[in-house]
Every structure is written in structure tokens, then in C-alpha cells.
Amino acid sequence: MIPQANPGAGYRALKGEIDAAVARALESGWYILGSEGRAFESEFAHWLGTARAVGCGNGTDALVLALRALGIGPGCAVATVSHTAVATVAAVEMVGATPVLIDIDPAHYTMDPLELAGVLAHPPAGLPPIKAVIPVHLYGQAADLPAIMAAAAAHGAVVIEDCAQAHGATLDGRKLGTFTEAATFSLYPTKNLGALGDGGIVATQDAARADLMAALRQYGWRSHYISTEQGINSRLDEIQAAILRAKLAHLDAHNARRQAIAAAYDAAVPAGLRPARRAGASHVFHQYVMRLPERGRIQQALRDAGIGSGIHYPVPVHLQPAYQGRVALGPAGGAESARACAEVLSLPMYPELTDAEVGHICATLRILLP
Ligand SMILES: *Cc1c(COP(=O)(O)O)cnc(C)c1O
After folding, report:
1. Is the pTM of this model over 0.90?
2. Residues 130 and 51 in one domain
3. Last residue within a domain, chosen from 231, 248, 265
């Protein structure tokens, strides 16, 4: 069976480098917030093109740190999308803010800027003021940042890019994560840059904001044992940081391999079912997502041919049991998000897929999707 994601293959491909990095971290005798973490933060910021980056426990906490550092909490609403990992919306509620979920543009699966502008101009009754907007660069492709940032700026709302699926993707030649006040990345094992455990990082151009996030991630300390903020505990450990340094050196090549696999899939998938590319954007294919009205039949036929697939995501956030009937929505009521959840299917996508495996997947797609 070819799995849909394969973090173990990612480890085995770099086993020598990763084992050496882990041994170095273990031998150092320092396991939390030390030289590996500092080096990873500066190497990541340099790779991305931001002044600073602050490591933390996971991508959800990265959003929490960004929201807290931008002063978003109780009494604020935050506009984001319903078609995302639940983590995006969970983070908004973790800081005590109120989410309002905007529908997606169904071609690109990212926030509909027109609905956002409408909700900012005429917010749902009873909602606190919308102080922040979190677009998600879903599947590895940019949201419509220029339109989203213009709408947010017109209403004085800050923007935080959720880049958990978009490490290395660009818009108009510039890396996602460099456009807004802060940008967050998950380093979960299957992400384009993945640890072998949990991890996250927040990037910003503002040194004071980075210092505040670094304090917030560890009990609000700016110096040992003195809490100047009400902090949390969300740290990136030294073993994961050492592993991530080794993997960061391969990230651009890994993204190029994902793009080559996507090009091969494109040649085997009928035009109407292929993922759309946004003009001016480079897509890093965290997922290669087809749109199939007959999804169940195709998924079973792929399984019968030894090909795994995934559904990202089966249920939009506003229809999940923990959120249904409770979260505010834009005027479209999340209709396109719900429609997408019923039809999306993600093909196997990881850099270690072999050419023979890609060939088998493409040959199977040509038979199944004439
Ligand atoms: C993975 C992901 C997150 C959460 O990251 P964790 O590291 O699992 O906490 C947030 N947003 C999006 C879009 C994600 O894909």
C-alpha cells in the first residue's frame, strides 16, 4: 500500500544526518531552549526572510502566541475560515477571542475576500469588534493576501498568516509568512517541514513582538523566574530543533520534488478535477487535492489498487460537534466549505515517493478518471 503521507520515509531518507543531530542534542546535556533551538530559529528566519522567528510547542500554540502578542483576547473577534484544520479556530478560542468563520473561494479553497469585506463592514449581531484576520494558505497555496490585507487594513484589523501547510510557498515572488504582522508554522511530522514529534514556530519582522512571544512561551519570563506577562508553557525542545535544522537544509529540494509529483499527477487528472493554481503564486503541495463528486467510489478503487488517499477535511469546523450552532458565520453560511468537504480527495504526497510509485498512481488515475 502506498500511504497518503509517510513521515517514516522522511526519516529514513535522512537517517544519517538526523541520527547525528539527535546524538548531538543528547550529548549536549541541555534539552530545552538551548543552542539548537536558537540556531534553528535564526536559520529558519534567515531562510524565510523575516527578522525573527520564535519556536514553540506546536502550530496551534504558534497561533496562540501570535494572537496574544498582537493583543487579541477576550472582547475581540477574529475572522478566519471554516475549511481548515480545527486548530486554527481552536487557537482563537484558546486566547478567549470569538471566531467568525468566512467561507472559501471554491477554486482555491482559501478565504473569500469579498465575504470578509462584507463581514468587516456589517459584522453579525452580537459579535465583538473584529480585531484580527487569519487567512490560511491551505494545501500549500497562497490565500488572496492582497485583497484580504486591504480589507483588514480598512477596518484596522491585524492579519496573521496561518502558514502551517505553506512552508516555502510564494506570492508575487515573496515567501508566504513575510507579508503580515506575524505568521505561524506547524512543524508536525507530515508538514512540508516536519519534526519527528511536535513543534511550531512564529515569524515576525518586529523584534519587540518576537521578544514578547519568547516571553509568553515560557511563563511570561523575560529573565529567569520573573514573569512580566501572563505566559504559557510552549517550548520547542532541543532534540526536535536539531532534527529540524537537518531537515530545513532539504526543504527547498523537498518542495521541488512535491511540485514535480504534482506535475505528474496533473498530466493524469482531467483538467476539471485538478487543483487550481493562483496567478502569481507558487504552490508547495502540502496536499494535492482533487475535487470529485463521486469521491467514495474513486477512493475505494484507489485503495483496491494499493493507493492510499486522504480527506482534508471531512467536516468543516462550523459543522463539527464542538462548534456547530455556536460559532458565528458570514452570510454564505459556510456553504462552499461544506461542499468542498464532501468532494475533496488528497493523493499520496511526500518527497520520498518513488518515480515507480508515482507512475503506478498516474496509470491508475488514467483508468479511473477518463
Ligand atoms: C497542522 C495545522 C495547524 C496546527 O498545527 P499543530 O502543530 O498540529 O498544532 C494549524 N493550522 C493548519 C492550517 C494546520 O494544517
Report:
1. yes
2. yes
3. 248
Q: Is 184 in the pocket of ligand 1 (CB under 6 A)?
A: no
Judgement on whether residues 174 and 292 belong to the same structural domain of the protein: no
135 lines ligand 1 (CB under 6 A): no
Question: Does ligand 1 have an atom closer than 6 angstroms to the CB of 192?
Answer: no
**Together in a domain, 173 and 307:** no
Residue that finishes a domain, picked among 215, 248, 281: 248
Residues 120, 180 share a domain: yes
Give the span between the Cα atoms of 80 and 134, in whole angstroms: 5
77-93 pLDDT, tens digit each? 999 999 999 999 999 99
> Mutate which of 136, 186, 240, 349 to test ligand 1's pocket (most atoms within 8 Å of Cβ)?
186
Give the range of the structural domain holding residue 324, as residue numbers without chain letter.
Answer: 251-368
Query: What are the φ/ψ torsions at residue 33 (nearest 5 degrees)?
Result: 50, 70
Give yes or no for residue 58 CB within 6 A of ligand 1.
Answer: yes
Domain co-membership, 195 together with 241: yes
pLDDT, one tens digit per residue, over 250-305 is 999 999 999 999 999 999 999 999 999 999 999 999 999 999 999 999 999 999 99
Does the C-beta of 188 come closer than 6 Å to ligand 1? yes
Query: Which neighbouring-strand residues pair with 77?
Result: 98, 130
- 101 forms bridges with which residues in the sheet? 80, 329
84 Cβ inside 6 Å of ligand 1: yes
Structural domains of the chain, count: 2
Q: Ligand 1 centroid vs 188 CA: distance in angstroms?
A: 7
Ligand 1 pocket test, pick from 188, 240, 289 with the greatest ligand atom count within 8 Å of Cβ, gives 188
Pair (310, 297) in one structural domain: yes
Residue 247 CA to residue 226 CA, distance in Å, equals 35
DSSP string, 136-166: B-GGGS---HHHHHHHHHHTT-EEEEE-TT-
CATH number at residue 109: 3.40.640.10
